[in-house]
Amino acid sequence: MTSCQVTFEVKGSSAAGEVFAICGSCSALGNWNPQAAVVLQPGDVTLEKTWKATVELPRGVPVQYRYFKGYFLEPRVFARLGGKNNTQETETDVFLQTIDGPCEVIVHTWETHLQPRSITPLENEITVDDGHFGICNLHCFTGADCDELIGHLCLNRNREPLIAYETSGFLSVLFHRLRDPKTREDGIETVDAGWLTCQTEIRLRLHYSEKPPVLISKKKFKTSRFRVKLTLEGLEKDDDEEGQEKTSPTVPQKMANTVEFSLISDDDYKCRHSQPDCGYALQPDRWIEYTIQTMEPDNLELIFDFFEEDLGEKVVQDDVLPGHVGSACLLSSTIAELGKSAGILTLAIMSRNPRKTIGKVRVDYIIIKPIQGYTCDMQASYAKYWKPRTTLDVGHRGAGNSTTTAKLAKVQENTIASLKSAASHGAAYVEFDVHLSKDHVPIVYHDLTCCMAMKKKLDTEPLELFEIAVKELTFDQLQLLKLAHVTALKVKDHNASFKEEENSACETQPFPSLQRVLESVSKDVGFNIEIKWISQQRDGQWDGNLSTYFDMNLFLDIILKTVLMNAGGRRIVFSSFHADICTMIRHKQNKYPVLFLTQGESKLYPELMDLRSRTTPIAINFAQFENLLGINVHSEDLLRNPAFIKRAISKGLVIFSWGDDANDPDNRKKLREYGVHGLIYDRIDQNTVASCEDGRKTVS
């Protein structure tokens, strides 16, 4: 097959050390693997550089591709003397040896148009001017293509929102902008932040969810309010290590440690790459978060400086910083030694003059690592895409709650039979819950605990039940043992709960594996996969009385890999009530969208400890801060405050609704009119469902 020399050109600005690259559907462009992408070279230095690369492509073969920008980190090398590994080497020969494997790529920003750029080269030499990075030139798209493009949450070149929803939920304004000739010439920007490829992300938080995070023992500070400033430094290396790096013929490029400062509250959220000289004020209704990305997660020194809120008074005589109270030091190696993905640290606050302990600070942390054993590619991303359509019907736990609601579903919830039943009765999506068995098999089941029966010598004796955590049973045990829902503890006839299970057919058996569910249910039906995790109530009680659980990175890696490797073309939306789970899903993979589940202010459910989970407004701001697709809100809160729906939509978020109130047809009608994008409710087989042709056979 003959080939063509194709020169790709794209315009874009970059930060120090950043480069542009191209990744595509053929081997010459890396087969969608960013680690094998082609790096573009910068042209003349202008406000926006033109980046170029020439690639040999097969003639007449269509090729799809995307641009991205980020860091290409060379593998670490060291110089060794010869004569040790090869008899032909002399002791005076110097060789370079790689010690950390192939080149690592960190994706900062990448193009995520639903349809990638494409070319079919036909001439010997071609130059492709692709305009600006991230800008899709719409003159080449048909009306049908535009219908797909309006599902993206996009910004124009001035980074102004193009989205304005009507109560029907359609992106009407964007729809008209796309068909406007002027807009087609200008194009729209469709880019997304990258995901974790080889770097580690450390999140540190200060908040009042449980109690004030800072406690100073000195009487003069008992009623003080404080400001906090974080300074990030790398630990100094030994002279020998520095000398080795300086004398190496090739000095590897390193990613600089980055830190972002964020504030989240009911009213707003802010993200900054800098902070005031005296930091940000700690407030009861505010969540302060520090996001650090690094290649050396165990080699950082983090200094917290504390100031009195009233900065007019010098606390220490001749202090260069007015109001400075003291400092606390955190070595990231301390977190690494704990070996946990999440936890709480208590640090001593030391005064500077004299040097002594004057208080303590409570710091929450999570560590987010790339998925182990799986590499995300650049072929497609739906993380910020939602196709405009009428409100979707989503089957709650399949065909409905069969254990705790007023009108129980006829088919046992969260079973293959229940999911198939909802699908056959018109559900565009089915919602179900996933967690892990003891031997790390992803299973579908709602509760974190279940009931096990004690064996009795005589069949006439009543069964004695005890509650056991699902995580304490292997997958085989979950399939073979006689288990029942925890509601069996409240029923007088315990035998009935187990007889019902004994008579169940294969597809109505509880605890199906996630992989089997992915393989058994029609691919035309979307999955809303709720990731279960333990949450703490504000009164201190934990879900299922479980205060410890799996390692969060390990837990999510297993579930995400199962979905990414087995979902095929199925539409997937992840969701969770746990904010950190949502954060980690968003940063570990680049393909599927995430909804933050929240009960808002509810009379039915106890308030949660996590500040981010307590109200719908702060859930909206959290979803924006984490760049999630949207939120999934309890119907009780939305029916009481319909303005929350308009507020979420105005921020470019997708909004679903769940809860018993949504089981009432009149309430569903109201929520549809208010503009929610998805309704999760029970007994979908007993309700008249609108045509789901819009929802089927298309990516969400």
The level of helicity is 10-25%
Q: Main beta sheet: strand number and arrangement?
A: 8 strands, parallel, barrel
Strand order of the largest sheet: 26-27-32-33-34-35-36-37
How big is the Rg? Answer: 28 Å
User: Got a strand count?
Assistant: 37
Question: Given the structure, what is the number of helices?
Answer: 15
Oligomer: single chain
The residue-averaged pLDDT reads 84
* Gross morphology: globular
Distance between the termini: 38 Å
Description of the structure:
This protein has 15 helices and 37 strands. The strands form eight sheets. The protein has an eight-stranded parallel barrel with strand order 26-27-32-33-34-35-36-37, surrounded by five helices. Strands 15, 16, 18, 19, 21, 24 and 25 form a seven-stranded antiparallel β-sheet that branches. Strands 2, 3, 6, 9, 10 and 14 form a six-stranded antiparallel β-sheet that branches. With 700 residues, the chain is of the alpha+beta class. The protein is globular, with a radius of gyration of 28 Å. α9 packs parallel to α10 and α10 crosses α11 (579-588).
